[in-house]
Amino acid sequence: MERVDAITDVVGLRVGHAQLVGSGALTGTTVVLAPVGGAVAAVDVRGGGPGTHETDALDPRNLVQRVEAVVLTGGSAYGLAAVHGVMAWLEEQGRGVSVGPRPGQVVPVVPAAALLDLGRGGDFAARPDASLGRAAVEAAARTALRAPVLQGCVGAGTGAVAGGLRGGTGSAGIRLESGITVGALAVVNAAGSVVDPHTGALYGEFYCGRVEYPEPSVHQAAQRRLARARAETQSRRHGAEGEHGPLNTTLAVVATDARLTRAQAQKVAGAAHDGLARAIRPVHLMNDGDTVFALSTEEREVPDTATLNAVLAGAADAVMRSIVKAVRAAEGFDGPGGVFPAYGDLY
Fold this sequence. Notes:
By secondary structure, this protein is of the alpha+beta class. The chain has helices spanning 76-79, 82-92, 130-142, 216-236, 262-279, 305-329, 343-346, and strands at 14-22, 25-33, 39-45, 51-53, 66-67, 69-73, 97-98, 106-107, 112-114, 161-162, 165-166, 168-175, 181-188, 251-258, 291-300, 333-335, 338-340. A 6-stranded mixed β-sheet has the order 5-3-15-14-13-12. Strands 1-2-6-9-4 form a 5-stranded mixed β-sheet. Strands 7-8 form a two-stranded antiparallel ribbon. Strand 12 (168-175) and strand 13 form a beta hairpin. Helix 2 (82-92) crosses helix 3 and helix 5 crosses helix 6 (305-329). The relative contact order is 0.21. The model has no long low-confidence stretch (mean pLDDT 94).
């Protein structure tokens, strides 16, 4: 089948988005839906301010073996309510950990992580809830296998901002020489920057072999425009960022069809953070909640350490490319909660 350069290149995975835009809202939720029966899962949290749900269940020492879905959401800790809508939908499908003698007596284990986008649309109270989570998982269930993933300011990336620029959702897929597929989906909402301040080039593109260096005059004009946008945003928010300064978080799901143990999946999640470090500087700050989930659909054997090493390297590359694609696909926003120009607006 034809590749779509997205996490859905890993056969069996589906992605759905739902968002709230307008009337003070600028936020959303994204669901990565596993095949029926679930996927082996792990997580690696490196930001200093995470907002998560059910991540302890993914510890390789614990009972749960597979998960049916992963939720990425805006709304900070409030937005984790979106998980309840996803769980309700999964329960209706009879998908989850069996906990009773009758069919359908299940508890869906749905790990999730949230980013902080509160007030970016103007209304601090506009955030994802159970109904938005349900809309996102239903959108995922309606998609075909290997469907392209909608990217840009959608789903959990709707209210995302990276270093003052509009962030967003991006996805990429890689086919390794072994035939194993590695894919990623990232939601870019970083306290750090995705742009080299000296040249205006995207950090992630330094490693992609196709760096586009803006003309110096263009870069200087872009820096001035971004500074004005930041000042205007501060004015509209009455100069307040809270006691800890700007709070953000970049989230990602990296997936593979390689057959991984839960310990190996956790190693993949950790390696995928290298993709964040290449594309965002600085990263993993106390102001971030950077979290990466890993999924394995267990379709292809991993015969040796060299093959596993290639999966680890591919995870970092896929996350890095997802971040670049998210920033490239983003569109600027000007509303009561602030002015957030897109990279494409400035360069």
